[in-house]
Amino acid sequence: YKFNFHIMKKGILFFVIALFFVSIKLFSQESQHPIDKYLDSCFQKNDYTTVGMMNCTEEAIKMWDDELNKYYKLLMKILDEESAKTLKTSELQWIEFKEKEFKNIESIYSKLDGTMYIPMQYYVKMEIIKTRAKQLGDFYGLLTEYK
After folding, report:
1. Shortest CA distance to 133 belongs to which of 73, 82, 57?
2. pLDDT tens column, 3-17
3. CA 67, 70, 73, 76 torsion: positive or negative?
4. Taking the alpha carbons of 65, 70, 72, 73 in that order, is the dihedral positive or negative?
5. Does the CA dihedral 57-60-62-64 come out positive or negative?
6. What CA–CA distance (Å, rounded) separates 66 from 108?
7. Which of 12, 13, 32, 69 is 20 to 30 A from 77, comparing alpha carbons?
8. Chain centroid to CA 64: how far?
9. Which positions ≥6 away from 136 have C-beta within 8 Å?
10. CB of 67 within 8 A of CB of 33?
11. pTM summary value
């Protein structure tokens, strides 16, 4: 039997990557974003009513949108000209995607009966903006953490 170091290296790399993702997940559960904390608190204050959840989620959407715009502007300040142009193009395409996806979400949820689907629709839209805001925030963190 011949020992293969190449296979061993791949196994170790896989283990390190898996450990990294597990630790990120555990860390993210411990440190909830302030907007998520706001949303949880707002839901509780409104006793999880349909109107209350809608209003809370609408406010959280605005907050995530502000967060997204904050990191977009911060990135544009630190990127070189070519990278800034690429980010701008990407952001414009993302906005187009978001608008189309919102129409898709509205179309799907309009087929459902019951008031509970209204705040669910808002929440799904919020998650789209939240994901992009976190991506831009992560990019900014990557570029500023090691300078």
Report:
1. 73
2. 555 555 555 545 555
3. negative
4. positive
5. negative
6. 27
7. 32
8. 9
9. 68, 71, 72, 75
10. no
11. 0.77
Tokens 């898996």: give the residue: 18
**Residue showing tokens 């411990």:** 30
Retrieve residue 72's tokens.
């977009």
Residues 6 or more apart in contact with residue 91 via CB below 8 angstroms: 72
Identify the residue whose tokens are 């129409």.
103
Contacts of 110 (CB under 8 A, 6+ apart): none
Judged on CB neighbours under 10 Å (0-12, 13-18, 19+), 92 is exposed
Distance of alpha carbon 51 from the chain centroid:
24
Chain-centre distance for alpha carbon 1: 48
- Note the pLDDT tens digit of each residue in 38-96: 999 998 898 888 899 999 999 999 999 999 999 999 999 999 999 999 999 999 999 99
List helix spans (H) across 31-116. Answer: 34-45, 50-78, 81-109
Contact 87, 72 (CB under 8 A): yes
